[in-house]
Amino acid sequence: MSNSSTSYSLLNDLSNRRAEKHAYIDLLFSGFESTENDSLLSLIRSSGLSPRGRTVDSTDSLMAALADRSWDMLICTADTNFAIPPEQIAALIRSQARDLPIIQFAEQTDAEAQLQAIRAGITHLIEKGAKQLLVSHVLREYQLLTGRRRLHQLEIAIEQTEHLTAHLVEHSNLAIAEIENGKIVATNPSFLSLFSLEDMSDQPSLDQLSSGEHLDKLKLLVSQGHSHSETSIEFHTQIGGSFHASVELIEISLPNKRQQQLHIDPYGSLLDNKEQPFAKIPDQAKMLHAIEDTAQAALTGGHDAHLFFLSLGNLDADENSPAPFSLSKVDLHKVFKLLKTETGARFVAHLDSLNFALLFDFSSEDVAKQI
Predict the structure, then answer these.
(1) What single string gives the DSSP state of each residue in 206-247?
(2) What is the DSSP letter of 266?
(3) Are 235 and 242 in contact (CB under 8 A)?
(4) pTM: predicted TM-score of the whole model, two decimal places
């Protein structure tokens, strides 16, 4: 055995012993004399637990105890004049929606008495002198209760994780689509912006995102259920643009949900210089060609036009930040779409990082000044 494994075993044993030593259990007692309570606490303590107890002798004191803190178990008897009837205890705990096992000592523990106790909400009915049986039930119920509480904590953690994941997806710059049974059921804003789908009321289909062998590649990826590594696919936007992107499919399994997430990164590490995103958005060369065509048409008369240059270089991203404004990778596509669809320009080109050119088919200088 190596020193590392020996050290690990010692640390593990020490951790387990500390966990057992600090296994506190909080108990409520009803119907017992104080000496009986002390005797039961000592008996439970001998089992390895560290019990802490409180006596309740009325429904009011029981309600006060339940409001004060969370309890692990209630041990009661109906054989004394000052005892709260166990059935009343069970009904009160049930009305409070508490997960609190009840163990009752009784004179009669035959089958009929057991059945009545179960119907009333009593967890265990045991003979008054069966103290070792009490210890066994306490240990078992404490383990089950601890398991239920841990499960509840996991359910809360899963729910919080789902909310956090949804928040991160919603605000991610990465284009993300949720897929179920081969169909897109949800998309984040970055996805809609990337594909110019903001105005669509329905979710897009895979057929709208790509074509040809690239579409086949995308559908194969989805049908396989997951991707072992990223792959590159060419996509189309709704305004006629196209781009390559790194694609990854992630399978998500939750207790009540099983779905896939399609991650599309137009600036992924797989892309080379020839596959830069938005490469087919008209650039400076395309604009020069459009200007030449317009000039040739104007020679024949009646084809007046205006050329606008738009620079975003003097804008600030934040009033409180001295850093100059810069377009994010997704925002570049947003600006292009806005200029293309909202200005009425016949031709829009992205010249360089923050500069655009717009070509309008009108001759009025007044209209040009308004723009």
Answers:
(1) GGGT--HHHHHHHHHHHHHS--SS-EEEEEE-TTS-EEEEEE
(2) T
(3) yes
(4) 0.56
Cα dihedral 261, 267, 268, 271 sign: positive
Classify each residue of 220-235 as buried b or exposed e, where b means 16 or more C-beta atoms within 10 Å of its C-beta.
Answer: ebbeeeebeebbebbb
For 311-326, b/e burial (b = at least 16 CB within 10 A) is: eeeeeeeeeeeeeeee
Closest CA to 136 of 33, 27, 71, 48: 48
Beta bridge partners of 105: 77, 126
Q: Which amino acid is at 48?
A: G
- How do residues 33-67 score in pLDDT, each as one tens digit? 888 989 999 999 988 899 999 999 899 999 999 99
Give dist(CA 168, CA 145) in Å, integer.
34
Distance CA 86, CA 120 (A): 8
Q: Which of 92, 268, 78 is nearest to 173 (CA)?
A: 268
CA dist list (Å): 176 to 65, 241, 330, 337: 50, 19, 13, 20
Q: 348 in helix, strand or coil?
A: strand
